[in-house]
Design a protein that fits this description.
Blueprint lengths: L6 H27 L12 H10 L13 H6 L2 H7 L2 H7 L2 H9 L1 H8 L2 H9 L1 H8 L2 H9 L11 H10 L4 H4 L2 H9 L2 H8 L1 H8 L2 H7 L2 H9 L1 H9 L2 H7 L2 H9 L1 H19 L4
Helix pairs in contact: 2-21, 4-19, 5-18, 5-21, 6-17, 7-19, 8-18, 9-13, 9-17, 10-15, 11-13, 17-18
């Protein structure tokens, strides 16, 4: 005769599920990233790695009960390559940048799909923050960057044009956004120099909607070195962005990715030290 499980039994089963997910994460990280380093590779890396782990504690409670998608993502080839990518490791070492990358993962994924545009956005993040707040103006410039290249040397004329052109009128009335663009007028020459990349983005409404994320640019402006490094070599991140499971895992558990990247970097540094 079947009996209904007691509350204590159900609670025990729940904690077993949490433990299983935790073990899966640790096992995946240990196998694919060689965490912790073995043997002589511990020399010179224990303290930094331990310090990082102390600051970035990751437990089974950080993953939804019964959801093994993060553990599975850690085993994918695209994620393994991302974790070992120096550009990603530099960004992952910056908690604010890593948090932004996970929060706005889809916006950055759109940028990474056009590396030349991504580099321009990272370099002129404040100006793009102002421009992206006004979709019609952003779309107009992205669709025909060469038409606006002249404003790189004449920001005053751009402000005048904006006040006289329907697509730019909302931008013209936004003093903060206009000031940000005028402070970085090279945004126009950068977009013109990479016209094909921006035109490809402008031709995709979904991409332009994803790029109309002022907070993503604000985060780039706050951590310029971290995002500039990623923008210079975005191929690994672009590969992750093209993998829905991997991208969702990054957005759901950035601390797991950050810890794995830190340990991979520590291992690489240890292996570079000549052994006596």
């Amino acid at each position: 005769m079947n009996q209904t499980a007691s509350p204590a039994a159900r609670k025990g089963a729940t904690w077993i599920g949490v433990a299983i997910v935790g073990v899966a994460l640790v096992g995946a990280a240990s196998y694919y990233f060689d965490i912790p380093p073995r043997g002589d590779n511990l020399t010179g890396t224990v303290t930094p790695a331990q310090r990082y782990r102390a600051e970035q504690q990751v437990g089974a409670q950080d993953v939804k009960l019964g959801d093994q998608s993060v553990a599975q993502a850690l085993q994918s080839d695209v994620v393994v390559k991302l974790i070992h990518d120096p550009a990603f490791q530099k960004l992952a070492a910056n908690p604010e940048a890593m948090a932004a990358l996970s929060t706005h993962a889809h916006s950055y994924a759109t940028m990474a799909s056009q590396p030349a545009a991504f580099a321009a956005m990272a370099t002129h993040a404040s100006a793009f923050q102002g421009l992206s707040a006004h979709r019609d103006a952003f779309a107009a410039v992205a669709a025909n960057p060469s038409n606006y290249a002249k404003y790189a040397a004449d920001a005053v004329s751009f402000a005048h044009m904006a006040g006289q052109t329907k697509a730019f009128q909302s931008l013209a009335s936004d003093r903060a956004a206009l000031a940000a663009i005028q402070a970085q007028p090279a945004i126009f020459s950068a977009m013109s120099a990479n016209a094909a990349s921006f035109q490809a983005l402008s031709a995709a409404p979904a991409a332009m909607q994803s790029l109309a994320n002022t907070q993503a640019y604000s985060a780039m402006a706050a951590s310029p070195a971290a995002f500039a490094a990623l923008a210079r070599a975005p191929q690994r991140f672009a590969a992750v962005a093209a993998n829905a499971q991997a991208l969702n895992a990054l957005a759901a558990a950035p601390q797991v990715f950050a810890q794995a990247a830190a340990d991979a970097a520590a291992r690489t540094a240890a292996e570079a030290v000549p052994h006596k």
